[in-house]
Amino acid sequence: PFDLDGFARAASTMTYVGGTVPKLDTVVRDVPHGSAFIDSEAQLSAFRTRFRKVEAVSLDPERSRDLIDRLSKEL
Q1: Quick check: 10 pLDDT over 90?
Q2: CA distance 50 to 43
């Protein structure tokens, strides 16, 4: 949804790669000079929090499809 507040720093892409061993988690961010790989625990903690917030308000696949369909008809 475009009317949600609180995601001012979510303008660039973030790929969170995680698994069963959290110490091996990595965040990949696209930055002007290429890709940045982030794996320090302090930074990962901040990205985990950000990812959970985004995930909590994200549309499910059906509602996302409906939104895209509605927007495409408005163009």
Answers
A1: no
A2: 11
Q: Where are the domains of the chain?
A: 14-74
For the entire predicted model, the pTM comes to: 0.62
Over 12-64, what HEC string results? CCEEEECCCCHHHCEEEEEECCEEEEECCHHHHHHHHHHHHHHHHHCCCHHHH
User: How many Cα atoms are found within 13 Å in the side-chain-facing hemisphere of 69?
Assistant: 6
Tokens 């302090």 sit on residue: 42
| Cα-based angle 4, 6, 22 (whole degrees, multiple of 5) | 115
